[in-house]
């Protein structure tokens, strides 16, 4: 992994947590290989507040905060500095970052992708989800339902493929965007070998010494 070395620049997060006012947060760096991850710190939360400081990583970065056994939240930071992070675990959870727009822009871009490619097939996805939920009850599809199932699966796969291609086109047009890079982190394992190699080639030019680059290409 690439760490910042001999660099006085640092990253500081002052956090507020609603729904877990006292306890411990495990802060880790996830990667696209689950076996390759790094625990950065164990953070004490007292009265809903916590602080994290490091000068050993170089943004952009995706910081994963393990709040408890079932809740992890990802915080995206694009630059060095001091940032306020508000986490409301009662709202699914809801995360806001003060001082850096990367978090907001990341979810806004994902929302645009989903609206363009997944919202039109939401009914088909729900239909398949419903049929799969019945499989445990020894339910059997009719011949017509099987045909519909195959057609919907194909349509969903094609929609996700078009969604990935849209992301790749965005990266080609905006190779310096840390927001697009963060979405590549999310989608990377679903890409084919050619597109994976292309993403690595593009980001190597500017981001090869950053933490998010290591997280995508560990």
Task: Provide a quick synopsis of the model.
The protein is an alpha+beta fold and 218 residues long. It has helices at residues 102-117, 122-133, 143-173, 178-187, 193-207, 211-216, and strands spanning 11-18, 23-29, 38-45, 49-54, 61-66, 72-77, 81-88, 94-98.
Description:
The protein is an alpha+beta fold and 218 residues long. It folds into two domains: 11-100, Immunoglobulin-like (Sandwich), CATH 2.60.40; 105-216, no CATH class. It has helices at residues 102-117, 122-133, 143-173, 178-187, 193-207, 211-216, and strands at residues 11-18, 23-29, 38-45, 49-54, 61-66, 72-77, 81-88, 94-98. It has a four-stranded mixed beta sheet, covered by helices on one side. Strand 5 (61-66) and strand 6 (72-77) form a beta hairpin. It is globular, with a radius of gyration of 20 Å. It starts with 10 loop residues before the first strand and ends with a helix. The model has no long low-confidence stretch (mean pLDDT 92).
Keywords:
6 helices; alpha+beta; about 40% helix; 2 domains; Immunoglobulin-like
Fold topology:
Layout: E1 11-18, E2 23-29, E3 38-45, E4 49-54, E5 61-66, E6 72-77, E7 81-88, E8 94-98, H1 102-117, H2 122-133, H3 143-173, H4 178-187, H5 193-207, H6 211-216
Helix pairs in contact: 1-3, 1-4, 2-3, 3-4
């Amino acid at each position: 992994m690439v760490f910042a070395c001999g660099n006085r620049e640092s990253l500081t997060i002052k956090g507020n947590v609603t729904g877990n006012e006292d306890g411990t947060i495990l802060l880790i760096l996830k990667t696209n290989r689950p076996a390759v991850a790094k625990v950065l710190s164990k953070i004490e939360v007292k009265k809903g507040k916590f602080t994290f400081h490091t000068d050993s990583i170089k943004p952009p970065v995706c910081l994963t905060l393990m709040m408890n056994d079932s809740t992890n939240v990802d915080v995206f930071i694009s630059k060095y500095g001091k940032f306020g992070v508000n986490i409301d675990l009662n709202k699914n959870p809801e995360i806001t970052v003060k001082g850096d727009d990367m978090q907001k822009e990341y979810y806004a871009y994902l929302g645009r992708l989903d609206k363009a490619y997944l919202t039109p097939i939401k009914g088909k996805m729900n239909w398949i989800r419903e049929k799969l939920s019945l499989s445990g009850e020894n339910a059997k599809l009719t011949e017509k339902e099987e045909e519909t199932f195959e057609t919907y699966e194909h349509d969903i796969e094609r929609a996700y493929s078009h969604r990935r291609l849209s992301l790749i086109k965005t990266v080609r047009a905006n190779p310096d965007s840390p927001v697009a890079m963060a979405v590549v982190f999310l989608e990377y394992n679903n890409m084919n070998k050619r597109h994976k190699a292309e993403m690595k080639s593009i980001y190597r030019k500017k981001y090869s010494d950053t933490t998010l680059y290591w997280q995508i290409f560990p």
